[in-house]
Structure formats: structure tokens, C-alpha cells
Amino acid sequence: MTKLSHTLQLITAAVPLVLVGCQSAINAQNSAVQHNAAINTLAHHNQNSTSAPTQTLEQQALRIQRALANGNYASIINDIHPTRGVRVSMYAYVRPESDKTFSRAQFSQYLQESDIRFTWGEKDGSGKPLITPLPDYLQTWVHADVFDDKSTLTINDSQATGNSIDNLSKIYQNVDYVEFYHNGSEQYGGMDWRAMRLVFDEYQGKRYLVAIISDQWTV
Q: What is the rounded CA–CA span in Å between residue 81 and residue 60?
């Protein structure tokens, strides 16, 4: 074999090795590019997830009102204060010693165990106790579906003018509340007005529901 032929064989054998080496480098580079792109996509997704706007007080109250009006009671569980729970009052005069207070777990439990009845208080006028399960109380007494587009919403202010003493500011200090007010019908001279006050307090930088107060005409 001539020296020229031997040299050509060496060059031919080396070419595949060079090509394999180049292809490996290209594959590694492509993998790095794809990996970096995946990281950037994930970072962008996380950034979008954490930058969602926080609900205002009014928006949160409206969402809770709609959930109560539509019977979606379980959807407000995460709105309930994690340590204080939510107190439910039949009338404007809050009675901490007798009004029912539910933790998140209790609220969820008694929504499902609808055969368990509670004594919520005495009905104005008749003095008869209101004894009914939690879902029925929310549907028939809180009666959030009465607050429609014609109702008014106020923040830290009340339009209700009943005979029942409103002691909200005494019981709940340094908090915010939203009142939904329905001014009643002409048929009853407006005496069938209703109000619902959702009281909120902050905990670890977030706003939570601490009370649902109903109000209506009392004698």
C-alpha cells in the first residue's frame, strides 16, 4: 500500500468520529436551549399565577352574597376567618353569648349534616324560637337572593332604620363591613325591607369573613 492510500484511509476513518463529535455537541446545545426555554416558561407561568389581582372588599362581599343567594354555601368556606370562625346573627343586635359561631370545619360539617338543627334565636313579635338546620337558615332567614340589582350596597355604613339596636361597631371594632339593603315594596309601605351585613377582619395580611348579620323590621 502506498503512503498516499494509507493517508486517505486514516482521513476517511476520522471523518465519522468528527461528525459524531459535532452531532453530540449540537444535541447537547439543543437540550440546553430546550431546558432553558422550559424554565423560562415555568417562571412566566408562576409569575402570572402570583400576580393575579387581589379582590377588593366590595368584590369579595359581592361574591359571597351571590354564593349565598345561589345556595353555593360551601364555596365561602375559605372566606371564613381561620381562627375566629363566622358568627351568625338573626338581627342587628349581635348577641355574642348566644349567637351561633362556626369554624370552617363546623360550617362544612353542618352543611352536609342537614338533619342537625340549631336554635338561632327568638323571632321578633311572636317570641318563638327559630330552630332549623344551617342550610335552611341561610336559605330562608339570611335570604340573600332578595338583594338584586335594585338593592344598594354600602361600605361601613348602614341604611337600615329598624327598631332593633345596631351594636355592630361595639362588638366588631377596627373591622370593615358591607351592607346589602333592600328597601322593601310599595305593597307593605317599605316595612318589608331587609339588610345583610357581611363583617370582615384581616388575618396574616388577608381579609376574612367573621360575621353574617341579618336585619329587618322589628316591633
A: 14
> Which phi and psi angles does 153 have, rounded to 5°?
-125, 130
Note if the pTM is more than 0.90. no
Helix residue ranges, H only, the chain? 3-50, 57-69, 104-112, 134-137, 168-171
The backbone region for 83, taken as left when phi is positive above 0, alpha when psi lies in -120 to 50, beta otherwise, is alpha
Q: How many CA atoms lie within 13 A of 124 on its CB side?
A: 15
CB-side neighbour CA atoms (13 Å) of 175: 21
34-93 pLDDT per residue, tens: 444 443 433 343 333 333 458 999 999 999 999 999 999 999 999 999 999 999 999 999
**Cell 476517511 identifies what position?**
12
Amino acid sitting at position 88: V
CA angle 94, 95, 98 (to 5 degrees): 140
**Single-letter amino acid, residue 213:** I
As a whole number of angstroms, the distance between CA 9 and CA 127 comes to: 110
Enclosing H/E stretch for 182: strand 176-182
C-alpha 103/C-alpha 84 separation (Å) is: 7
Task: Write down the residue that cell numbers 342537614 correspond to.
Answer: 114
Tell me, what amino acid is at 94?
V
- DSSP reduced 3-state for 14: helix
Residue 85's region, left for phi above 0, alpha for psi from -120 to 50, else beta, is: left
CA distance 178 to 113: 29
